[in-house]
Amino acid sequence: MGGSGSKREEPAAPTYNPQFDQPWRNFNWNQKSELKKHLKEFRLCNPDVKHIKILVAGPIGAGKSSFINSVNNVFQGRITADAPANSSSGHGRSFTTTLKGHHISRGKIPLVFVDIMGLEPDTMAGSQPEDIIKAVYGHVKDGYKFDKSKPLSPKDQHYTSDPSLSDQAFCLVYVIPANTVDMTDDKLIDKLKIIRHRITEKGIPQVIVMTKVDEACPLVHKDLKKMYYSKKIKEKMQICHDKLGVPMCNIFPVKNYHEEIDIDDDVDVLILKALDQIIRIADDRLFNSSDKL
After folding, report:
1. Is residue 34 part of a domain?
2. Domains identified in the chain, total number
3. What is the CATH number of the domain that holds 176?
4. 68 within a domain of the structure (yes/no)
5. pLDDT in tens, 122-165
6. This prediction's pTM
7. Beta partners for 175?
């Protein structure tokens, strides 16, 4: 009586699709030449300021120096190493120990990236939030060696008490690694929030350059042009936004040059687009600051 005894097959679980059907951010992958030309011809709004400073901050190992080198690679058309970057990923210490400005394209682009010591979770480790804030406002001279135990004092020879517009930074770029952003120590996030809160009060714009996208998403690792189709990358950007409060439109996923010996157009165009937005945002801030003098 009853059925034949055969078991009814359960419906197969839906297969996870790592990409959207449509890109969630429009992006022109063929704009490399246009962006390079625009940046080479870019002139700052204030003729008295020859190079605008951009401060680059982030946790150790995030790829700050590698990002600066990657920007230079685009304009030099080859792999460069102007900003010494650590090739070891496991020692847990910042390779950058002094504040140093790096001119882009040997000074042909009106932009100087200021590289600083990496942030660490512990209170008395890595660069201090107060030093980063002072550097944004132009109080820290090039060559200052960071002291983990205390921030820079006005009595120090590397302290500038009355900085000019050229000494100041007009945008702070946080370099955050996509592959570990969801595991970032809360103490380190607290340090970043302190910096963000203090400089936001003064109207300093902030941007996130999200690195190591190829390590965060297998889809992107295989094909960089899947960047804006990737659900994982969008998720990582959302985490950056939630943790730091930087608007999604100011978050730029990029791949730094690391093991390559030749440049790549897809890598370059992502870097150029991020740089184009950074310099526009910084120039807007420079205009507002110049207007108040």
Report:
1. no
2. 1
3. 3.40.50.300
4. yes
5. 654 546 788 889 999 999 988 888 777 777 888 888 889 999 99
6. 0.87
7. 209
